[in-house]
Design a protein that fits this description.
about 400 residues; mainly alpha; about 70% helix; single chain
Length: about 400
């Protein structure tokens, strides 16, 4: 069957991908300035920043997995099984492996240095300690570690495990079932409440929503992130769903704001709202904000330009680099004696600037480094931008 109609580019999803990854820089920088555990701590504890981060903590990663599901679904309509699996290895296994060995290593080094657990000397740490598979008391992660690259490793596992699903939805019967599901979901407010059936069933079964990032013992995260990935895989085959998100965007936003207000009251004030289960509230917040964001993005961001094409092409190496760059410069900046606001701005903007310099000045100049950071080769990148501009 001809699946070309399902491959129509939804540019608002590209914008969401770029903006969600960019936001990670601001979010992870914020982790230095609140009381939540992180690799580097500034000594500040901003209640305002914590309230903003509280808003996004429940859905920011789910949104990335949804957009990734869309991309994977489209790829499976255009590739053979062998080519798809090889592409996943090149894109989602080689870069995190390289990152674990090289890119991520400075993160535990500067964390251990700030906590007084090791002596200064990065080369000695990397050659003599980092690969010894130890976990010092007080550290966030063991050595060696994948830290923020857990997202890529989870995505790699999901896309390989779900190959049978991809084949099914490309079949005649799969397309028919999806068409029926599309008709059902796009009536009334079903798109807003129906996904909660799975969310709440999983929550009440496990009784918690803890995320450990340990791929061997992270059942809630594995289920929830696989679920939202599948939603992306399926929804890209249901073009009317995106239109429905747009039509119910104010309903979604209203629910999201009400739940966020309850969360702020519960988190910041002593109130009778203490009877509300915090884990359950986070589950409810998750889908309401995703639905609202998709709806407004569909309305206002469904276009492309050179900015989207450029940042869409470098968002992966930017993600790989950002947390290491942020921790290295943050380690030094927080000792300069500036106010928390100035330190935060310097670290966030410095992370953007230095990461872009590394991407443009070093990584893009070598086809080998391009592979390690998930970029197209120089030849393929040039062809991509020529096609996009024509």
């Amino acid at each position: 069957m001809n699946l070309e109609k399902y491959n129509k580019r939804q540019y608002f999803l590209d914008w969401l991908r770029v903006l969600a990854f960019a936001y990670l820089i601001f979010y992870h920088t914020g982790m230095m300035f609140v009381e939540w555990p992180f690799h580097i701590e500034s000594g500040h504890d901003s209640q305002f920043l914590k309230s903003i981060m509280l808003l996004t903590a429940t859905w920011r990663l789910d949104l990335l997995f949804l957009v990734s599901g869309v991309a994977v679904s489209v790829m499976m309509t255009n590739m053979s099984l062998g080519k798809f699996c090889w592409q996943r290895v090149v894109k989602l296994f080689i870069p995190p492996l390289f990152a674990i060995i090289v890119v991520v290593a400075p993160q535990p080094y500067f964390e251990a240095l700030q906590k007084g657990l090791i002596e200064p000397g990065y080369w000695q740490f990397w050659t003599e300690q980092y690969f010894h598979f130890t976990w010092l008391e007080g550290m966030i992660t063991p050595w060696p570690t994948y830290t923020h690259m857990w997202y890529v490793l989870y995505l790699f596992c999901f896309t390989l495990i779900l190959i049978p699903l991809f084949y099914f939805i490309n079949s005649e019967s799969g397309i028919r079932i999806l068409h029926e599901l599309e008709d059902w979901l796009t009536k009334g407010l079903r798109l807003l409440w129906a996904p909660y059936i799975i969310y709440l069933s999983e929550y009440f079964y496990l009784g918690h929503n803890e995320v450990s990032h340990n791929i061997f013992d992270d059942w809630h995260a594995l289920f929830i992130f696989a679920y939202i990935l599948i939603i992306g895989v399926l929804f890209v085959r249901m073009p009317k769903v995106w239109v429905r998100f747009e039509n119910i965007r104010f309903w979604s936003l209203s629910l999201a704001l009400i739940l966020y207000a309850i969360a702020l009251i519960k988190y910041n004030l002593e109130t009778p709202l203490d009877f509300i289960n915090w884990d359950l509230l986070e589950v409810l917040l998750k889908w309401s904000w995703i639905a609202a964001i998709i709806g407004f993005a569909k309305r206002y961001l469904n276009f492309t330009n050179n900015t989207l094409r450029y940042f869409g092409s470098i968002v992966y190496p930017l993600y790989i680099l950002h947390q290491t760059v942020m921790i290295v410069i943050g380690y030094y900046i927080i000792d300069w004696g500036f106010s928390a606001l100035i330190e935060y701005i310097m670290i966030a903007l410095g992370t953007f600037a230095i990461s872009l310099i590394l991407i443009e000045g070093i990584i893009k100049q070598s086809n080998i480094l391009r592979i390690f950071f998930g970029l197209k080769s120089k030849k393929n990148e040039h062809a991509y931008f020529q096609k996009a501009s024509s």
